[in-house]
Design brief:
This protein is of the alpha+beta class and about 110 residues long. It has 1 helix and 2 strands, in the order ββα.
Length: about 110
């Protein structure tokens, strides 16, 4: 993976923490596309491993792959959580509506939560 910030000198010192927060990507050639108004600019960008790093390309690939796996797991977990919250809210609203429709306030079998 490549740090999005390039070193300004050849010293082996890592970049300050605030400069190392960019996204990590694997070495390779990338196409950069910028749009301003109706005009589109494209260019190629060659990324290489940071020579100050302590990891080889295979280790970076493993880290990159694990990061993507975790990202996908978090996305599925977030979807599941949103679905459960929606289901809970729908059930609560239906239970409230059902209680209003019951004659004489009878609510046997209805449990209100929420």
């Amino acid at each position: 993976m490549v740090n999005a910030v390039e070193a300004t000198d050849s010293s082996p010192q890592p970049a300050p923490r605030s400069r190392r927060t960019g996204p990590r990507v694997m070495p390779g050639t990338y196409t950069i596309k910028m749009t301003k108004g109706e005009k589109v600019y494209t260019s190629k960008l060659q990324l290489v491993l940071d020579p100050r790093g302590h990891y080889n390309e295979q280790e970076r690939r493993q880290q990159f792959d694990l990061g993507h796996q975790l990202y996908k797991m978090m996305a599925r977990m977030s979807f599941a959580e949103d679905s459960m919250v929606n289901l809970r809210d729908t059930a609560t609203a239906r239970a409230a509506n059902y209680r209003q429709m019951m004659p004489c306030g009878r609510t046997s079998g209805v449990v209100a939560t929420g």
